[in-house]
């Protein structure tokens, strides 16, 4: 069977865990941990794609080396967009949005983590879809023609969107189960000991204090305004 | 207050999520998300440390750019060792083990994720300690003088060790709570929407099928033999 190409598109100011989480899970499809029967899944190849091969810095200063560029990456079976404050500049970059549209239109799976959803949206890939994003930004989804569904991972057809940052890990297991079945997903889960035990239960607004939510919204006020403006500047997917 | 320097030591063949998870959490201490009162915590600076500044490839092919080297990194307040198959080669490298010993002996916190515990151990930092590591390797902990405690995150004095790969995220929140208090930890948890919802409950041997455990142990047979051999080759921390 031919390769299944998984591509993460990165850009300056992305939140690295948005894609390093799913990268860790999806890259393990490359040698399927089949149980009694061989995995029905072909070899997966993961690609980290950027405008150039120069290292790309995350919003918190981690440098990641792309493995290919918009020009030389293979056709993608799955495209994944991480989020981060850098989404604002990426939204203003026609080359990035054109690449997302080109690959997104032919990919088997179109996916995002956190505010990466707005990059899919700017490329016209969320029109008429149910979708999600980081909880503090869900009200902006209609600006790209999407309808918010309250869930950590939302599937609408071949489009998988997920919530803030760490939701990318849960999203990746949903993808693995879809591609290779539950047993393969469980084997990878055991391999990376994904048995989460957060010391606090405060990771969602439904569970957080009002003070913490207000602080987060206040700290994100500028980021939200910047994102709104960037989406207005690119109101139609063909405006670039 | 002076900076609090957090250093992740990376090496070829490390498992990237072992440190990108805690990096995402701990790097957010840099601008403490204080609530009503200012955070008692100083600015944290995160460093990604390697032998040279050349990109370091993970076991699954993700290239990470170090931010400093063993020679030019500042004294560390917290040192963190990720795991991965590359631990075997790192164990044979005196320069790496000497760096871990030097910084580990003066750091306020000595930490590891997954089989990174054996790098701390080879540097003599786990002698007489309760500790943990990836579930498939816990029987090897006595070889570095440690006693296995069954928990996702184990604290013994200033030494925090954690289980396989994804445990690093839970570990990081335990560290944040220790350094800056529960309210800061909860604010970061909300910011990265850490409200895990794995689609399966199979991330620990207690919850996995016998077939999945047997497969994992069989797939890790060579890795376990290599790790045992590397630990035997370096049986005393001053053997290098």
Write the layout of secondary structure elements.
Two copies of one chain form a homodimer.
Chain A: E1 4-9, H1 16-26, E2 44-50, E3 56-57, E4 63-65, E5 68-69, E6 78-81, H2 87-91, H3 94-106, E7 109-113, H4 117-122, E8 130-131, E9 147-148, E10 153-156, E11 159-162, H5 167-180, H6 182-191, H7 210-219, H8 221-233
Parallel strand pairs in A: 1-2, 1-6, 2-5, 6-7, 7-11, 8-9
Antiparallel strand pairs in A: 3-4, 10-11
Could you explain the architecture of this structure?
2 copies of one chain form a homodimer. Chain A has 240 residues and is α/β, with parallel strands linked by helices. In chain A, 34% of the residues lie in helices and 17% in strands. Chain A has a single domain (4-235), classed as Class I glutamine amidotransferase (GATase) domain (Rossmann fold, 3-Layer(aba) Sandwich). In chain A, helix 1 (16-26) packs parallel to helix 5 and helix 5 packs across helix 6 (182-191). The longest helix of chain A has 14 residues, at 167-180.
């Amino acid at each position: 069977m031919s390769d299944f190409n998984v591509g993460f598109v990165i850009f300056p100011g992305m939140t690295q865990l948005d894609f390093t989480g799913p990268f860790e899970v999806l890259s393990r499809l490359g040698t399927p941990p089949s149980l009694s029967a061989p995995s029905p899944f072909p070899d997966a190849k993961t690609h980290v794609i950027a405008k150039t091969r120069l290292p790309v810095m995350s919003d918190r200063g981690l440098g990641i080396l792309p493995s290919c560029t918009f020009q030389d990456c293979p056709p993608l079976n799955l495209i994944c967009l991480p989020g981060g404050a850098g989404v604002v500049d990426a939204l203003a970059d026609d080359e990035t949005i054109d690449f997302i549209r080109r690959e997104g239109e032919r990919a088997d799976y179109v996916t995002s983590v956190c505010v990466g959803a707005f990059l899919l949206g700017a490329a016209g890939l969320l029109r008429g879809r149910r979708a999600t994003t980081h909880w503090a930004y869900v009200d902006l989804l209609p600006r790209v023609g999407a309808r918010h569904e309250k869930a950590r991972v939302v599937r609408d057809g071949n489009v998988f969107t997920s919530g803030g940052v760490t939701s990318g890990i849960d999203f990746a297991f949903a993808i693995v189960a879809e591609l290779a079945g539950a047993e393969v997903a469980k084997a990878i889960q055991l391999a990376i000991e994904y048995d989460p035990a957060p010391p606090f239960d405060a990771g969602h607004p439904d569970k957080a204090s009002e003070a913490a939510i207000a602080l987060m919204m206040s700290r994100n006020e500028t980021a939200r305004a910047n994102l709104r403006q960037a989406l207005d500047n690119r109101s139609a997917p063909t405006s670039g």
